[in-house]
Amino acid sequence: MKVQMQGQALRIRISEAELARLLDGETVENLTRLPGNMAHHQLRMVEAGEPALFAAPGGWAFSLPRGELEPYVARLPCRDGLVVRLPVEQGGDLEVEFEVDVRDSVRSRGMGKRGAQFPAAPDRNSG
Fold it and tell me: What is the pTM of this model?
């Protein structure tokens, strides 16, 4: 799992193996140990309901409902992620982009539907 934060944007990228664990109902965790005997966890859970980001012991957790995840998974491999906007109490939104690494998806799934969109090469031996 790779996590990037800047301003009011959070990007979470996971591998196909981590996606499989999520779809099996498991939690995917990223643990960063910090100096001073501190640790920071980022968790991802697939649950029912609405997307949510909330404080958890030692860090934060992102909850993504299966109903939003499954249509995204059906599009894989793709470069665009699943974007969720979460309201912030101080005003504005936090934009969370959740994605599966496209290179890992291509290795695991092949080119998929996007590759099929290209027209076949003309048959030079006919007509």
Answer: 0.79
> Residue 127 falls within a domain, yes or no?
no
Reading the block at residue 118, the tokens are 């290209």
| Residue 77 belongs to domain spanning | 2-110
Predicted local confidence at residue 103, as pLDDT = 83
17 in a structural domain: yes
The answer to whether 39 and 66 are in contact (CB under 8 A) is no
Identify which of 122, 80, 120, 98 has the alpha carbon closest to the alpha carbon of residue 44: 98
* Cβ neighbourhood burial of 96 (10 Å; 0-12, 13-18, 19+): buried
108 pLDDT above the threshold of 90: no
For residue 68, the tally of other CB atoms under 10 A from its CB is 14
- The string of pLDDT tens digits covering residues 26-60 is 889 988 888 988 888 888 888 888 999 988 888 88
For residue 119, cis peptide bond before it (omega within 30 degrees of 0): no
